[in-house]
Amino acid sequence: MRAIAILGRPVFVVCLSFLLLLAPRISRACDVYDGNLHIPQVIVGNTVFLNVVLTLASVQSVGAAVANPAAASFDFYDFHTGLLTLACVTVGPNTYSNVAVGVQSIVSVGGATALPTAPTLLAKFPLPPARVGEAYSTQLVDHVIPESTYTIGIDTLANGSLPTGMTIHFDGTLSGTPFATGAADINGFQVSHLFTFGVCATDTFSRNSTSPCPQVSVLVNPTRITTAVVGSGSVSASPAGNSCGANCYEGFASGANVTLTPTPASGWTFTGWSGACTGAGACVVSANGIKNVVATFTQAVTGSLKGTWVGPWSWTGTATNGCTAHDGGTMTLVFTQSGSAFTGSVNVTGVQTLDAGAGCSVFSTDPVAGSLSGSISGSVVTYSLEFEPGFNFSGTATLNGNTLISNSLVRQSSGGSGSFSLAPGAGDWFMHWNCNGDDDCISFFSPNGQASGSVDEGPALAACNSVVSGLQLLAPTPATASCTQIP
Prior knowledge:
The protein is mainly beta. It has five domains: 4-114, no CATH class; 120-221, Immunoglobulins (Immunoglobulin-like, Sandwich); 224-299; 307-424, Porin (Beta Barrel); 429-485, no CATH class. Helix content is 3%, strand content 52%. The protein has two helices and 39 strands. Strands 26-27-28-31-32-33-34-36 form an eight-stranded antiparallel β-barrel. A five-stranded mixed β-barrel has the order 2-3-4-7-6. Strands 20-21-18-25-23 form a five-stranded mixed sheet, with no helix packed on it. Strand 5 and strand 6 form a beta hairpin.
């Protein structure tokens, strides 16, 4: 018998495109033509097809008739010309050599047997890591030699195993959602684990498989919860899991509920979650893959600006007419505070512009009224003042005992520098305290500082009345407390 060998790419253009590889030295007998061309043996990939029958489109050339054809000769298909050259072909009683024909179609193909050659699979390396509770998909196979159609699967003869929840598909894709890492520490929390297993390719025609099957490995990491902190504080987890850094916890079972608890630093308060948690209440996270949470802390308001504050103020800078200005006199601020924000009114007197050159004059003004707004964080007050259109000032002040002091009074249009030192107005009560770590005290007051209120309203008045008269407060009295009433 004799097989076809191909020149160029896979063969016969349309009709014989399935003939990918035809091996030499398979047989020695001539082909036979009886209206159809009969080729005893054809090799495609790793499969030997028997008794292939073709119809011919044309006969291009015929060599000499031979009585005894030479052995060990091949047929050749030229992809460029589309011609099949037969080493020898028997037609009736005659045998001809070097016959060039055009192929029209495939009539039939007989049985098929497998070649003993095993395919070679080249696996991808390294594989990307997986994580418990997180969808995963990657291709395991780089390529298989020789080219053919293969199904891919795990080596059932090896001692390897796949991560639970993951599957190798026929196309060589490893996918799924791992349920567990397959390893745990002495406390029962999951730790990273490397799964190693063999990957085999099976020829769908010959059923030959790779041997040995190459091994690949995929690392499965545990679930993780990370908490970023804005401000000053920390976040703890229950169960605690394993630490993966500051405010980072991992090793929980897939789907486990983990409770996160924020703890503000001294002088700070927790104001809310973002990311995998929302709101400002309890946060329970379902552990799957990586969950990212942000805890925001803001500096506590340690004092109150409620009521009236009065005192001297001054500012030196350049007036709109170019003259040097020295403004000053008495400033009265009336605060309406809500949490860390406030609004209110401002009244100033004694505003003067002093002559500093030709065209500059000295004058005084009547009291000028305006508005104020801002916020307080800890003992730092950030404010904006508007006396009248065009007279806008801003800066920061410090609440220090019974005094509100600013050394950064700046006019927004022309800069300059100024200051004020204000004290509570007459009739205000001031409550001074230090909680000394008393949680009940912190729940009623701010951690430490002062509060103010007029004689007929405000928390400071109620607290001071209790301290002065000895009455019991609704919440326990701070560890140390005293009161001052402004005459």
